[in-house]
Amino acid sequence: MSFELELSKGNFTIPECITCKKIVWPPSEFCSHCLGKVSLKEGDFQGRIIEFSRQNKECFGIVEMENSIKIMAKILGEPHVDQTVKIAKCGMREGNYFFEVN
């Protein structure tokens, strides 16, 4: 299965090399380190807010997942730097990834 197919179903997975166990980001079918095949790790992953910005009543920020992946996400609730968050919603809109965390 591909990362984008899972994301389009609302599932956040993390691509990981089967051979060297390196997290592969941006998502790819092959590891950029050893060229091994990549599988998708499922789980209830936690991240932390690195920075955020507010526009009107909405907050957006950079969230680091699994100490390596950085995503831009809409932040639900009142954010603060280093706050632990989880993916609340994810998917694809017009070919682009979207993430919401809380």
Automatic annotation (TrEMBL):
Which superkingdom heads the taxonomic lineage of this protein's source? Archaea
**Cross-referenced InterPro entries, in alphabetical order?**
ChsH2_Znr, NA-bd_OB-fold
Q: Which residues form the ChsH2 rubredoxin-like zinc ribbon domain?
A: 9-36
Q: What is this protein called?
A: ChsH2 rubredoxin-like zinc ribbon domain-containing protein
Its source organism is: Candidatus Nitrosopumilus koreensis AR1
What broad taxonomic lineage does this protein's source fall under?
Archaea, Nitrososphaerota, Nitrososphaeria, Nitrosopumilales, Nitrosopumilaceae
